[in-house]
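During the reporting period the student researcher (J.K.) took over the structure-prediction task from the postdoctoral fellow and processed the backlog of single-chain submissions. One of the processed entries is reproduced below for the supervisory committee.
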Amino acid sequence: MKLRTQIIWISSIAVLLAVLISDAVIWTINKESLQNEAMIKSYQNSFSMINRMEENLDRMVLLNNVMPDSVYLNYYFKRSMDEYSICFQGTGGYVSNEIDKNAVTEIYNRTVFTAADLAELNFQNYEELQYAELKWEGRDYLVFSSLVKQNLLVYHFEDITYVREELALLLLIMLCITLGVIAVVVFVLVFVLKRVFEPLRILNVTTKRMAEGDYHQRIDIQSRNEIGELSESFNSMAEAVETRARSLEESEQRKTLFMGNLTHELKTPMTAISGYAQTLLSTRITPGEKEEALTFIYKECGRLERLSRKMMKLLELDQEEALELCDMSIETIFEAAQQSCSVILREKEIQLEIEEHGEHFCMEPDLMTDVIINLIDNAVKASRQGGRICLQAEGNEIRVRDYGRGIPREEQDKILEPFYMIDKSRSRKHGGAGLGLALTATILELHHASLRIDSEPGSGTCMILQFV
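J.K. obtained the following C-alpha cells:
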C-alpha cells in the first residue's frame, strides 16, 4: 500500500473516530435533555389535570355537601378527561397508592389496561406524583398516578414517543453529517496529499532514472519544507554522483589511453631488440656491426628500465594517501639534482645557473629531487648545444628556465598527460617516453603545489613550481 493511501486511511479513521465520539457525546446529552424535558412536561400536564379535578370535586362537595357518586364521576371523566386518563375507586381503601385488586371499582377507563396491569408497573416518586414507564404498541408512555380524596386513584398517560423519534432523527442527521465530514476530509486529503507528494513522486522517478545511468537528472525545488530540503540534498547527491561518475569515466579513459600508449612504447624498443637479437643469432656480421647491435640493445634495455621505473613510481604515488613532509633547504635539493644531471649537461655543453637565497620548503626530499631532475632533463632536451638553463628559488616559487624551442600554447595543457610528447621522433631519439611531466604533476599534487608553464615557441620555457 502506498504511503499516500496509508495516510488517507489513517487520517480518515482518526477523523471518523473523533466525529463518532463527538456524536455519541452530543446524542447522549440530547437524550438526557429530551427525556428530562418530556418528564417535566408530562408531569406538568398530569399534575395540572389532577389538580383541576380535585378543585372541581371540592367545589361539588361544597355545593352538595356530599362526595359525588360513581355515576357522576364517570360522567365527569368522560366530559373532562382525555382517553389517556383512568380512574379507580377503592372500596377497601389504599395503602401507599397500592390497589387492593379485589376491592376496586372502575369508574373511568378507555384503555386496555386493568387495575391489576397498572399495579404491576414499577412506580417511582417524582415531586408530588408517582410515575412509571410503559411501552405499548410500539409507543412510549409515562404513567403518572395520584390518590385523590383518599379513595380515588387516578392514572394519566403521557405519550413520549416523540423523544425516541427525535433521537432517531438526530442520529440520522449526525450520521449524514459524519459521512459528509468523512467525504470532505477524504477529498481534501486526496487533493492536498497529491500536491504534497508530487515532489516525492518526481524524486522517485528521478531516482529510477539515475539508477538507470542518467546522472543529469535534477529536481526543481518549489518549497523550503522538509521535502524541499530532501530535494536539495538529492540534487547535491546527484551532483556528487555525476561528478564521481564523470571522474571515474575520465579515469577509465585515461587508464585505457595509458595502457594503449604503454603498449605502443613497449612495442617499439622490443621490436628493435628482437630484430637485432635475431640478426646476431642468424647472421654473420662484422665485429663493428656486432658492437653496434649490442650497443643499441643495451640502450633500448636501459630505456625500458627507465620506463618501467617511472611507471612504478606513478603507480606508487597514485596509491599513496599522504606524504611525510619536512622542512628542507632548497640548496640541498638543487645540489642533488645538479649532481644527477651533470652527465647530460656535460654532453650538450649546457651551463646550469643556480640562484637561491636560503629558501626552505615543506617537501619530501627524494620526490622533489626527482621533480627538479625531470624538469632539468626536459630543459636539456629542448635546449641547443652549448645553451644555458636557470634554476631559481624565490619566495614560495621554484623556476626552471631554458632558452630552447619553447612549447606551443595549444600543447601546454596536454604535456602533463602520461606518454604525451610534442615531438615524438625527437623524444624517442633522446630516450623519452612522455612520463616525466606526468610524474612531476603527480608529485606536486601530493605536495599541494601547482605547476605553471610560461612558454613561447622559439623563446624558451619557464616551469614555475608554486607552493602554498
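The committee noted the following: The radius of gyration is 58 Å.
J.K. will present the remaining backlog at the next meeting.
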